[in-house]
Design goal:
The chain is mainly alpha-helical. Helix content is about 80%, strand content about 0%.
């Protein structure tokens, strides 16, 4: 794992918006994300840090570059398909972490909006399920259902899922059809 860290540090120090086309970024992302799913803890830890660093580099490329590289759209699709829609908790956490970083940058957020119609229902569903599981793990069997539901709702409101949703839906560039399709889903989440 020490060698992997050295390689990542050298490579990440080299990549910038002006030379990112010289590196096959989507391949680098694929390798890094696969390593995040590795069965060995030490590999997963290094890969998770590398994924965060790679995400920062990607945001910098999107923000400072003259044009948006073609691989960015492929990366977003990969994150949605293999990480946000995943039933694996570690994969979901990595996907959410990457999206959370991307939505904080206005240029990257604009690129995500094209995928918003697909992402919004998934994020709503995953937020409710994930927070319910998290809250129920922390509670004992003696806790009444109403207080568990209240705790779940409070945790859901402050989750990264909701932060991503809000950034997408509150953007003045969010397509109208996404807003119209999302409204009933958000209403259902609030009723719970």
């Amino acid at each position: 794992s020490q060698n992997i860290r050295k390689i990542y540090c050298q490579l990440f120090g080299y990549i910038n918006p002006s030379n990112c086309n010289m590196v096959k970024m989507i391949d680098l992302w694929n390798i890094t994300l696969r390593a995040c799913d590795d069965t060995r803890d030490n590999v997963r830890r290094v890969a998770t840090v590398a994924a965060k660093d790679l995400c920062s580099i990607t945001v910098r490329i999107v923000s400072e570059g003259d044009s948006v590289p073609k691989w960015i759209d492929e990366l977003i699709t990969l994150i949605i398909n293999d990480y946000i829609e995943s039933v694996s908790t570690p994969s979901l956490i990595i996907g959410i972490s990457i999206l959370h970083t991307l939505v904080k940058n206005e240029n990257a957020l604009t690129l995500l909006l094209k995928h918003a119609a697909r992402m919004v229902p998934i994020l709503i569903q995953k937020s409710a399920i994930t927070e319910q599981i998290n809250v129920s793990k922390g509670n004992t069997r003696n806790t009444d259902y109403a207080s568990m539901e209240k705790d779940t709702m409070e945790a859901t409101k402050s989750s990264p899922f909701i932060e991503i949703l809000l950034r997408l839906l509150e953007s003045d560039k969010c397509p109208r059809n996404v807003l119209e399709e999302s409204t009933p889903l958000i209403g259902q989440l609030i009723k719970r």
